[in-house]
Amino acid sequence: MMNKPQGDVLIALARQAIADKLEIRCDAINTDHDDWLTEHVATFVTLTIYGNLRGCIGTLEAYRPLIDDVRSNAEAAAFHDPRFAPLSRGEYASVDIEVSVLSRMQNVEAQNEQIAIATIRPGIDGVVLQYGPYKATFLPQVWDQLPDPQQFFAHLKQKAGLSIDFWHPELQLSTYQVNKFHEHNNEHNGSGH
CATH classification of 4-103+178-189, choosing from 3.20.20.190, 3.30.700.20, 3.40.50.300, 1.10.357.10? Predict the structure, then answer.
């Protein structure tokens, strides 16, 4: 579990990575004594402008140091999210950054969608859905827009490239929670909601 000062560092790292790519001057961050940034942790970086999604990219499995994961995901969210044109210099000042630090994945046994819906905790669990080459995830924050579990799963399947009524016994589900840090309102949710 990370605290607010650590979250502030993560937000600053994400903003600096985007500024560097845009060649915009940004205050340097001294991370020399922050050993926690070398731990392998998975993150997502979400960008919004005036409340509208502007990019969201992340990793589901921890495979590189936290500092590298945040920087890489911030740059990818700003410039390589296929849903959006690359972030422009003119948008930089308006972009709002949220960093989500993911817990370890937990596999969910669900032979059918009713069991899955009964098992998943709305507002708490992020969900990864995979069937063969089809894969998608929704962060726990997506429950804010899709509070109905059936609707949540329908959209998640659609995001994966499957039909909304698709289910198969070999479909794999995993859950995770996040520790999220939001730039402008300094929102910190330590309980992982």
Answer: 3.30.700.20
